[in-house]
Amino acid sequence: MLLACTHKYKYRLFYGVPGVCRVRYDNELGKGDHRHFNNQEWPYVFINLETLIRDFQRDVELWRPGK
């Protein structure tokens, strides 16, 4: 079953180093909107671009060592 996005945006926000993903938000074909954090994947409810960027930045801050 293909999941469709309810918005017109295609996005991929990534935090990590080559070959190692720490945080990623994307809407890959067939998966719809979702997020990756700590080697796990969850569905993501897209509200708007501002919320997407804020949520991504929050997860980056949560992951960063020393936090």
Low-confidence stretches are none
Strand content: 35-45%
Judged by helices, strands and strand pairing, the structural class is alpha+beta
β-strand number: 4
Residue-averaged pLDDT: 88
Order of helices and strands: EEEEH
What fraction, in percent, of the residue positions are helical? 10-25%
Give the spatial strand order of the biggest sheet: 1-2-3-4
Number of domains: 1
How many helix segments? 1
Radius of gyration: 12 Å
| Distance separating the two termini | 39 Å
Envelope shape: globular
Largest beta-sheet characterization: 4 strands, antiparallel
Q: What is the element layout, followed by pairings?
A:
Blueprint: E1 12-17, E2 20-28, E3 32-37, E4 40-43, H1 49-63
Antiparallel strand pairs: 1-2, 2-3, 3-4
Protein name: DUF6516 family protein
Organism: Limnobacter parvus
Pfam families: TumE
Describe the protein's architecture and organization:
This protein has 67 residues and is α+β, with helices and mostly antiparallel strands. Helices cover 22% and strands 37% of the residues. The protein has one helix at 49-63; strands at residues 12-17, 20-28, 32-37, 40-43. The protein has a 4-stranded antiparallel β-sheet, with helices on one face. Strand 1 and strand 2 form a beta hairpin.
